[in-house]
Write a structure and sequence with these properties.
The protein contains 23 helices and 46 strands. The protein is of the alpha+beta class.
Length: 888
């Protein structure tokens, strides 16, 4: 059964309206805004039944191809959710793609000034670009903008324009990937181009609109509302391959490296070809809009041109810039910024093109994001505009640079955006942390402050630039600037140490975290979730990973622990690493690690593993400096161990020398460590610090398996919903009394074990359809396969067999091991591999090895040292059953 959604609006019609104006010309209005109403999850037995359902839509109905998980739900605006607890909003966190058969909709509008393609030409172009779709079940249907007639005269007033192609696919969750591949392949087939907007922006386009492949988007598929003598006469839909099964999108291959390079070249060439037209349109727009501002606002021409140019070219909106609100009233950026509580989340027309689609709700302002205030407009695919506050004024006095620096710091603290983290840092809109350089700080000071000196000749202040050396003085005032201390950055809610939800954007003093929220409304996490809410949360969180052939309950427990840890790692002092292991390449190990990164707010960047301990320390420190939430070492070979890695995993603070600077810097260590590899060996002390999730597809060529969807794309598209699901599960565990279900504790990770490990075991004890084991049990598997432990075992048994209970010097052991056939001979061969056998195996090297492993019990045996004369050290093997050397 094909799943989809049907919407009914409680307000205005959701379809276009056509009429004849006083001059007899065809007019059109568009009011397609779904503010409140009802959404129902519908099913159709096949594509033909689905298309027949479209014909029955009224003007207040639309369809969508994501589902909300309920049979029927009430829709309200996100800002009204707090007073409508049973309602949902038409936003990504409430909608997802169906797990099974669904509809992939392709939305075509002809290029401006070009004749529309015929239905045959449109489908042919698609199949040339994506030949795999030739046998797919597909339907063609005109859009509501096509085939408008005058019934009185019989004349066609508007012919074929917009068109839709509907494709039945086997897995709705793979629609975003399908859309991306179709878009890319159409570009490769010559159908890509850059359009120029009214304001001179370049818009990437091809035959089909790339903005529709999101589960909450609507398809306004009902017929137009025609007034007077106008009627709409649609032809019958065209249906293809109705007997074929839904198309398996996983069969579409990704672009090859050669195709990717070709695509980049095509886009670069098209962008360059469009630049002259872009500049011409932009200059004309600036001239026209500036003249309008002169008339409407009484601004000078120079001021108007500067304001429009800053908005168009730099996406900067200064305090005197006018915005058109949802009600139609005009308000300045300065007025909006002075009352953030009133205006946060308010809707506006596009600031550059206020008449864009006659939609005064196309943009919204985010004044409580935790970062710099901005306006985001969805026009033309989306654009972000920074809202600039009125700069403060400071007077420069001769010889008072230090006092001026104090005043500048007072202004900068009020403005926000600067933090201390061992050095002065700033946070970008994507959550990345950057060290503030004197050059950047000088520019920022210039944006925040207007400097003046008193002109004695003219007897009035005159503006000057940022005083020389001022930025250098401030950057060198370590420990004196009094900016907030930054422990880390999150881009979604998380849990505080006390179990409360950190869901208010901005700087949180209790945790030292900066929460940057780029969503119109914040995620809601129930304080005491109900069993149905918890079961639904687990299903949403686990959905992208359900098809992975994990090798058992323990591996499922490790993965679930990794997902929960990714969401709360910033507030945990330490956390174990997570390893994704498989017998062969192509099993999906890296995908799982990347999903952890995306869930934590990262971008999925992977790193090559370090080749030495020194390199590992520098690489880990560099990632911490950049604020990476998850550090991924991909395709590790050999043993995973090392002093730097072990210290990193168990240290709340990590330090290293800064390159180019002769100083040590200590940073909060709130990053999650993940690693992937084939048949990983976790050795030494890392064996108890890294949890292993093993994938076993039990097939010779796992890379040929079909998932039916891409878990990485699914996690990227549904990140906010998955974060909400993880936090709901953790809140459910805490609301249940936080039962201590784990046996014992995990050294160095006590806080993690108390929350995450116990929560995993609690989830596993519920009847929610997911069997998970204790993730810490994977450590036992590490220890059994630990080559360091294996070598030590051989050494202990060989030493006991050679010397019994006698005490001996390391030099005596070297002599005994030189004899062929001696038990120690083979044991020493194993030790030589520790340093590659490149240097002689000396008594000193053996002594260092024994010192490093003194007291380490393996098979009930351990090495014991006893001091001798002349600073000599004697060694013997003791047993836990009789640890007193004198009793041997």
């Amino acid at each position: 059964m094909i799943s989809y959604s049907r919407y009914r609006s409680h307000g205005a019609a959701l379809t276009k309206q056509y009429f004849l104006d006083d001059d007899g010309q065809l007019g059109k209005t568009t009011k397609a805004q779904m503010v409140s109403g009802i959404v129902e999850t519908r099913t159709a037995a096949n594509l033909a039944e689905f298309v027949a359902g479209l014909d029955s839509l009224s003007g207040q109905q639309a369809v969508g191809y994501g589902i909300c998980g309920r049979d029927r739900a009430r829709l309200v605006r996100q800002r009204d959710l707090s007073i409508n607890s049973d309602a949902i909003a038409r936003a990504k966190e409430y909608f997802r793609w169906p797990d099974g058969p669904a509809i992939l909709m392709l939305d075509y509008d002809p290029r401006t000034g070009a004749a529309p393609l015929s239905p045959e030409q449109l489908r042919s172009a698609l199949l040339v670009a994506v030949h795999e779709l030739t046998g797919a079940p597909m339907a063609w249907r005109p859009s509501s903008s096509s085939y408008i007639y005058d019934a009185e005269t019989g004349n066609e007033r508007r012919g074929l324009r917009g068109q839709r192609l509907y494709i039945a696919v086997a897995k709705g969750s793979d629609i975003p990937r399908a859309g991306r591949l179709i878009f890319e392949r159409l570009w490769l087939s010559g159908y890509g181009y850059f359009a120029v907007s009214k304001a001179g922006s370049l818009l990437e386009r091809c035959l089909f609109d790339a903005a529709v492949w999101s589960p909450e988007r609507l398809d306004f598929a009902a017929g137009a509302h025609c007034q007077g003598s106008l009627v709409q006469r649609w032809p019958a839909p065209l249906l293809f391959n109705l007997d074929a099964p839904p198309f398996d999108v996983a069969s579409l291959p990704d672009l090859t490296a050669v195709e990717g390079e070709k695509l980049w070249e095509l886009k670069s060439e098209a962008r360059n070809d469009a630049k002259p037209e872009q500049q011409r349109v932009r200059d004309a727009y600036i001239a026209t809009r500036s003249a309008e501002l002169v008339t409407e606002r009484g601004m000078s021409l120079d001021a108007a041109q500067a304001a429009v140019r800053r908005a168009v070219e730099s996406s900067l909106l200064f305090p005197d810039f006018d915005l058109v609100s949802e009600s139609g009233k005009t308000v300045t950026v300065g007025e909006v910024l002075t009352n953030p509580v009133k205006w946060h989340g308010a809707r506006f027309a596009d600031p550059v093109e206020p008449d864009y689609r006659n939609d005064r709700r196309v943009a919204w302002v985010n004044l409580l994001s935790g970062g710099r205030p901005y306006l985001y407009s969805h026009a033309h695919g989306g654009r972000r505009f920074e809202l600039i506050s009125q700069p403060s004024a400071l007077t420069v006095q001769p010889g008072a640079l230090s006092a001026l620096a104090d005043s500048v710091l007072d202004v900068l603290r009020l403005r926000g955006g600067l933090y201390e983290q061992g050095r002065l840092v700033r946070v970008a809109e994507d959550g990345r942390i950057y060290v503030v350089s004197p050059q950047w700080l000088e520019d920022w000071i210039g944006r925040c402050i207007r400097f003046e000196v008193y002109d004695r000749d003219k007897e009035r202040p005159k503006p000057v630039g940022v005083p020389h050396k001022l930025a250098n003085i401030i950057t060198e005032r370590h420990g004196e600037r009094r900016f907030p201390r930054l422990h880390g950055v999150v881009t979604a809610p998380t849990l505080r140490h006390d179990g409360s939800v950190l869901d208010r954007p901005g700087y949180d003093e209790g945790t030292g975290l900066l929460y940057i929220c780029n969503q119109p409304e914040h995620i809601r996490i129930p304080t005491k979730p109900t069993p149905p809410e918890l079961a639904r949360a687990l299903a949403n969180l686990w959905h992208p990973f359900a098809a992975f052939p994990l090798d058992g309950a323990v591996s499922r427990g490790v993965l679930l622990a990794g997902l929960l840890t990714a969401v709360v790692r910033r507030t945990l002092p330490t956390a174990p690493g997570f390893a994704f292991d498989a017998p062969t390449a192509g099993s999906g190990k890296t995908k799982l690690a990347v999903c952890l990164s995306l869930l934590a707010g990262g971008d999925g960047t992977v790193h090559a593993p370090a080749n030495s301990d020194e390199e590992a320390r520098k690489a880990l420190f560099s990632c911490l400096r950049g604020g990476e939430p998850v550090i991924i070492w991909d395709n590790v070979t050999g043993h995973l161990d090392g002093a730097a890695l072990n210290a990193f995993l168990t240290s709340p603070v990590f330090s290293d020398r800064v390159l180019g600077i002769s100083s040590i810097e200590a940073l909060p260590n709130t990053a999650l460590f993940a690693v992937s590899g084939n048949n990983l060996t976790i050795a030494g002390d890392a064996a108890r610090r890294v949890l292993v999730c093993r994938i076993d597809s039990q097939t010779e060529n796992p890379h040929l398996r079909s998932f039916g969807f891409d878990p990485v794309e699914s996690t990227r598209a549904n990140r906010q919903e998955m974060v909400a699901a993880a936090l709901t599960l953790l809140r459910g565990y805490l609301a249940a009394g936080a039962p201590a279900l784990a046996e014992g504790s995990v050294g160095s990770f006590e806080a993690w074990g108390s929350l995450v490990r116990n929560a995993v075991l609690w989830i596993g004890s519920q009847d929610w359809g997911l069997e998970v084991g204790d993730p810490v049990r994977s450590i036992e598997r590490n220890r059994r396969a630990d080559p360091v432990k294996e070598t030590l075992s051989e050494m202990l048994h060989a030493w006991e067999a050679t010397f019994g209970s006698s005490v001996v010097l390391a030099s005596d052991a070297i002599k005994a091991g030189a004899a062929m056939g001696s038990p120690l001979c083979e044991a020493f061969d194993g030790l030589k591999s520790d340093w590659g056998g490149r240097e002689p195996f000396t008594a000193r090297r053996l002594g260092k090895y024994l010192s490093r492993h003194t007291g380490h019990i393996v098979d009930g045996l351990y090495f014991h040292s006893e001091p001798g004369r002349s600073r000599q050290t004697f060694w013997r093997v003791l047993s836990t059953s009789n640890p007193d050397p004198r009793g041997l």
